[in-house]
User: Which sequence fits this backbone?
């Protein structure tokens, strides 16, 4: 690692055992985390790339920079940020979102969280909302108890990579009985070319608590491929509720390869709302492990792929306990030769009697060049259960376009209206401020103005 101006650290490209050790040393981490990183690096070298799903042949691990420190330390005041970083977040509305809507906000620029603000009411309630590096320093026992328990390094190659080189991300702890009425928010932005971002997010909702966490992701456009390989672990204890909303708008040079998993205990609820636009390739399948009686899991997802994009997304619902229930609603749109894939797994174990699952996969093709695939897997190991699955693929009909055109609406606007109607069941689940933004992004995609 070398020291740049303003005390910024920026190592060269490529990954090595020495880099992993130096990263942990630079962060002044405890031995247990350093050992976790080193073990994960060994696993990463041994694991192969997935042989299914989108092609990853253009992903070159040796040409990626694995850590960039944009500032010396997180700051508590928006005006204390460096001007270029502040300008970046001003453009995507972080200050306005915080003032008007959010209970807390955390923004990550490259590898480190650079801006943190949390309202005093959260501190009074015992809520912890900070970046993962801070959590590791201030709450090491809590982090150690949960870190890697749901997504171990050996789970897959990118989980191993994240565990080895993770930096930043969010840590959320909601004490027993605390119900937050306003959501917590984090932004993640990649600003460097050929850069890898590996944030680690850990959310713990204790018994009878409630939280809504929203992450927004964005990156500028470069011609060379960058990598985003995050890991998210969510623990939803008895009678708790967690909603995790992602509004993703990566540029089309990003490989977005993410592992997200939640464990849900008795009578608790986990909700994933996943909106995927942008990226060259996305592989993301948020999972819910229903381990307690009457636990519930929901997944609402939108995928939009245009020219040269392959969005491979879906969900996994694993029922371990009786009277558990799950619901997956997937909406995908393909345009200008783009490709979307739904890849899902529902598994109901022998002890999960009187459980129920519902899966609905709907795909909309804008033109003849585009493609949509569905790969549903149902693994039902008990007869005492209720299983529903339905899937549809449709094209935008010329009759509908003609009808709207006859009312003075041009073709692009007509197609936009039909797409917005198609995704409306999921849009209505997103807070107003973000549903408006998502609609705007989709309308830009439809008009060819994004990318």
Assistant:
């Amino acid at each position: 690692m070398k020291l740049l101006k303003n005390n910024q650290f920026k190592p060269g490209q490529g990954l090595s055992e020495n880099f992993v050790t130096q990263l942990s040393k630079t962060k002044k981490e405890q031995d247990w985390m350093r050992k976790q990183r080193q073990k994960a690096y060994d696993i990463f070298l041994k694991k192969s790339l997935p042989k299914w799903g989108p092609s990853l042949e253009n992903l070159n691990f040796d040409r990626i920079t694995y850590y960039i420190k944009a500032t010396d330390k997180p700051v508590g005041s928006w005006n204390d940020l460096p001007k270029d970083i502040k300008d970046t977040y001003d453009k995507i509305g972080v200050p306005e979102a915080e003032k008007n809507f959010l209970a807390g906000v955390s923004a990550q620029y490259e590898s480190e969280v650079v801006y943190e603000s949390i309202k005093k009411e959260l501190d009074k309630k015992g809520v912890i909302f900070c970046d993962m590096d801070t959590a590791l320093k201030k709450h090491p026992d809590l982090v150690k108890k949960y870190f890697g328990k749901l997504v171990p390094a050996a789970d897959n190659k990118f989980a191993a990579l994240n565990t080895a080189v993770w930096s930043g991300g969010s840590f959320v702890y909601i004490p027993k009985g605390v119900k937050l009425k306003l959501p917590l928010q984090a932004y993640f932005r990649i600003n460097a070319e050929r850069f890898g971002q590996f944030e680690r997010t850990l959310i713990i909702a204790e018994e009878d608590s409630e939280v809504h966490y929203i992450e927004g992701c964005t990156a500028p456009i470069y011609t060379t491929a960058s990598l985003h390989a995050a890991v998210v672990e969510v623990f939803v204890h008895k009678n708790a509720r967690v909603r995790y909303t992602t509004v993703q708008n990566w540029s089309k040079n990003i490989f977005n390869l993410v592992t997200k998993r939640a464990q849900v205990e008795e009578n608790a609820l986990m909700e994933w709302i996943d909106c995927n636009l942008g990226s060259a390739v996305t592989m993301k399948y948020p999972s819910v492990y229903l381990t307690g009686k009457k636990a519930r899991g929901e997944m609402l997802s939108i995928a939009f792929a245009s020219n040269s994009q392959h969005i491979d997304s879906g969900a996994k619902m694993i029922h371990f306990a009786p009277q558990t229930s799950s619901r997956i609603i997937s909406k995908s749109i393909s345009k200008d030769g783009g490709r979307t894939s739904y890849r899902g797994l529902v598994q109901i174990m022998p002890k999960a009697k009187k459980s129920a699952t519902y899966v609905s996969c709907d795909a909309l093709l804008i033109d003849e060049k585009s493609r949509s695939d569905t790969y549903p897997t149902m693994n039902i190991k008990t007869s005492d259960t209720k299983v529903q699955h339905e899937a549809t693929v449709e094209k935008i009909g010329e009759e509908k376009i003609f009808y709207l055109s006859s009312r003075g609406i041009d073709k692009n606007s007509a197609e936009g209206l039909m797409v917005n109607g198609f995704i409306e069941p999921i849009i209505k689940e997103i807070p107003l401020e973000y549903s408006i933004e998502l609609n705007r992004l989709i309308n830009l995609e439809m008009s060819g103005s994004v990318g």
